[in-house]
Amino acid sequence: MGVVNVTPDSFSDGGLYLDSGAAVEHGLMLAADGAKILDIGGESTRPGASPVGQQEELRRVIPVIEGLSAALGADAPQISIDTSKSSVARAALDAGASLVNDVTALRGDPSLAGLVAERGCECCLMHMLGVPRTMQQDPRYEDVVGDVKAFLLARMEFAVGEGIAEDRILLDPGIGFGKTIEHNLQLLRRLGELVAIGRPVVIGTSRKSFLGRLTGRSDPADRVGGTIATNVIAYERGASVFRVHDVAVVHDALLVAAATVAA
Ligand code: HH2
After folding, report:
1. Which terminus of the chain faces fewer neighbouring Cβ atoms within 10 Å, N or C?
2. Tally of CA atoms within 13 A in the half-sphere of 156 that contains its CB
3. Is the CB of 175 under 6 A from ligand 1?
4. What is the CA radius of gyration of the chain?
5. Closest Cα to atom 5, ligand 1: which residue?
């Protein structure tokens, strides 16, 4: 899953693809690099980020999804919309998206679950403790893996109760969303416990700050080594979807990891 952030303030690529033409071009490059899914987002969820209004989010992402849908060929990657708003998800699905990636796991907008159920599209339910503005202020868990697993099971039960087919659901532990370095590492180390739920697990470590703290790399673009290491480990522990900014190198790393594990 390649990331296309159409935002001025994303933590690693804010402002680079705010222009819809540049965002479409970037998405096409990620597809050529091997992305099977393109995740389009118009609102940063980095720690401390401020919420974006519906009109502005629509203005950012819809032309990009329309542009990618028109430009991508027969072997096109799936388009995912990274949003918590049902109005944005609806317009994105109309424009060609088929996966709703909601970092609030259907807690942010009461009408999003019904929309996903009605359209029969896929959705990714992600764990987050608190809200982006304050989530990194002293996050605490009884047992981070057990707590995240219980949360994901509860959100899946909610989604199914709202009419979403279980086989349309992907799950994500939400690396960096209300977690310390040790919480993130525990989730990666014990990812198998989440894979055991039986739904595809999405993992998003790409360029995140815990990799910077572990390696001393303050510039997110310099965290590709840490990104590769964590994605290979997640693959080996059963993750299915790898949300990254640097598709080409992670794609190669996963091809080699897959060949090694298969042998
Ligand atoms: N991480 C980010 C955003 N969306 N979605 C899922 N399912 N999993 C993640 O780990 C995840 C996500 C944050 O990364 P990014 O989009 O690069 O940054 P920003 O939120 O600042 O735009």
Report:
1. C
2. 21
3. yes
4. 17
5. 103
All domains of the chain in start order, with CATH:
2-262 (3.20.20.20)
Residue 14 CA to residue 221 CA, distance in Å, equals: 12
Is residue 217 annotated as a catalytic residue, yes or no?
no
The two structure tokens encoding residue 261: 């594990």
State what percent of residues in the chain have pLDDT above 90.
Answer: 86
Q: How many residues does the chain have?
A: 263
**C-alpha to C-alpha distance for 157 and 68, rounded to whole angstroms:** 33
107 exposure class (CB count in 10 Å sphere: 0-12, 13-18, 19+): middle
Segment 26-47, tens digit of pLDDT: 999 999 999 999 999 999 988 8
Distance (angstroms) between ligand 1 centre and the Cα of 204 equals 7
Separation of alpha carbons 39 and 45, rounded Å: 14
DSSP for residue 163:
T
Residue 208 bears catalytic tag: yes
Beta carbons within 8 Å of 238's beta carbon, 6+ residues apart: 191, 192, 195, 201
Tokens of 210: 């815990």
Contact indicator for 95, 81 with CB cutoff of 8 Å: no
Q: What is the mean pLDDT of residues 55-68?
A: 97
Pocket test for ligand 1, best of 1, 3, 123, 240 (most atoms within 8 A of CB): 3
- Whole-prediction pTM: 0.96
| Nearest-angstrom CA–CA distance, 60 and 37 | 19
Structure tokens at 101: 């990636």
Contact 237, 191 (CB under 8 A): yes
pLDDT computed for residue 46 by the predictor: 86
The DSSP-derived string for 103-140 is TTTT-S-TTHHHHHHHHT-EEEEE--SS-TTTTTSS--
